[in-house]
Amino acid sequence: MNVAGLFSGIGGLELPFEAHGANTVLLCDAWDSSRSVLSAHFPDVRLSDDVRELDELPDGVDIVTAGFPCTDLSQAGRMAGIRGEESGLVEHVFRLLRAREVEWLVLENVRNMLVLDGGRAMSYLVSELEALGFRWAYRLVDSRFTGVPQRRHRVLLVASRHHDPRTVLFADEHGEPGSSIFRDDAFGFYWTEGLTGLGWAQDAVPPLKGGSGLGIPSPPAVWVPGADTGRRLVTPCIEDAEALQGFERGWTAPAQLDRRGKSARWKLVGNAVTVGVAEWLIGRLHRPGEVVVPHRRLNTPGRWPHAAYGTAGEVWKFEASSWPIRREYRHLLDLLTQDAANPLSQRASAGFLSRVKRSRLRFVPEFLADLEQHVEYMASGDTHHGKKRRIAAA
Q1: Is 70 a catalytic residue?
Q2: Residue of 3, 70, 110, 141 marked catalytic
Q3: pLDDT grade, residue 258 (50/70/90)?
Q4: Together in a domain, 149 and 173
């Protein structure tokens, strides 16, 4: 298979294709930092910097992948919709497909595009695909099914003119696992939230993201009950974040610094596709299976379901869970490099506590007690480890 990757980011969709013996013939991303990472890991692949300037796809392309920008679709972004300045760039995918026959198209984006603007993003995507003669299917999946402790829901859309995408997305169904597979020794949450939500996750972190409610790229926090004072609220290091997305640690190290001299690595990782999700998908592209997920025709689609298939104006709802399969789960504390995890800073923890006290959300009492103790400890200047202030400021 020959693969062309558009909006490639750091290669989360394309990397597993290489592992399956496919040949990547094109990667494209407009961000300098992304291209630095791609150049380091795909040194022999043609690299383009602007999808708008691509006249055509290379000859012999079998698969086009596109994790197109979620900036205008995600809750952490502007939510301007599919016609927004950045998410609207997906129109260039369709432009390129009009001029080149390909076997498969793989799109990936945030869960919010199913509901934003009454589902207009999905309506636009499927109408464009059907106008090009594609059959399409999509499924909402949770990255935890791949074994990584990150509760990350993303929409995978697969389309083809000649093949049945149902045999790719709906040939597996494990079902949501019970809570017994998760330990209760660590809980992830967003320290940038606190008024209306937390992204609370047991034995996992909430979705890594390139932005936050404060408008800055930021790691989630992890509550570790029973840890030493000052170590009960910590944030993962960037290498842990890479592992939470299924990449090798240090994958984004080639990223360029921004104009302020700050690293773009957190934003790159937050915008990436979880590698294990793409690995499962590619396995089914190579070996399609029998459809095992129950489904029914939708006479009046209304709101877009979590999984569906369509062709020629007709839509079927699939009763698919977000866990098509289940890989061996790696527990959060087994993945985190705890010595490299930074204590949540005094400023961050105090601001979070202030929002928590003003909110109407319900919290575990032990969590609130540890949060208040952490704020006091970080403000006290007490240095049990001798490096607390330096680590917190890093």
Answers
A1: yes
A2: 70
A3: low
A4: yes
